[in-house]
Task: structure prediction
Amino acid sequence: MKTAFRWYGEGNDSVTLDQIRQIPSCPSIVGVLDSKAAGEVWTPEEIRAYRENIEGHGLRLEVIESVNVHEDIKLGLPTRDEYINNFKQTIENLGKQGIRVVCYNFMPVIDFARTDWAKEMPDGSTALYFDQKVLDKMTPSDLVSSTMEEAEGFTLPGWEEGRLQMLKDTMKQYEGVTKEDLRRNYQYFLEAVIPTCEQFDVKLAVHPDDPGWEIFGLPRLAHTAEEYQKIMDMVDSPCNGITFCTGSLGSNPENDIPAMIRHFCKQGRVPFAHVRNVKYLGDKEFIESGHLSSDGSLDMYEIIRAFYESGFDGYIRPDHGRAIWGEKCRPGYGLYDRALGLTYINGLWEAVEKNATHK
Result:
């Protein structure tokens, strides 16, 4: 297991590299150039400057999250080949700068969705919250507006303003697009880009749908074990992998998270993992609790044990944290609760490892 911490860049994150460096056992950054629009090439000069800044603070950069996939690729439009070629060029440029894993997603139009980005919890902290009953009363435009209002002045992954300016037009383009259509377009994309990933030693890792079901009638392809297996079978390569997010997949209580970890890790298809907890509050209603098992509905010890016993040797980071101790930050991405989460993950790993060794 190689631990890491997500960081958005100078001037775009409330957390500094010097603060991250002081977190115990956190040598790496999960980085992003979120000024880049979907479909744009990340240039060697931009990547190098970003990497050198991180290394200048005593940290490493080996994982990027995310390189966004242009909607024309998902829709299978005639322009998709241009954007696929740009994606391949970005993969080459990243690989040459030492990036070993690239996280991405194939969710149409809307990335991860929440109906409240700062819901107050009994202890006074705030956390990301989702209730399908609330979403059912909203339009996609309502969701975008509420998200922008609650983002504390920061961008949110998948909610960059430029990507959503043409929301209504993009939603209309998806009318009549089925899961089978989207799956065919996905396979076309993977067949085109995975050879480049293999050439430059970059593992592509698809993030699950979040929440773990379809919203606004849009097709989604990555929220069950069966669906993920179909993606892995599209291109049989270790470079066609998964970002195993326990919180996103865990939002659906029907998913057996430890079993899924074992299944896909044993195939060598999990180069990257996000670990966090969720607490179920009702049907398709949950809140992102603290990382501890006792705080939520997932058994975090069993999750870490599944990673360990499956021989997981990829990168792992704490995922969304609560806002605690008065911190003002991008929702889900403050310093304090994620640092506590990473310390907890390291403690669980040590306990699992010692239990296995002493048997």
In short: The CA atoms of residues 308 and 353 lie 7 Å apart.
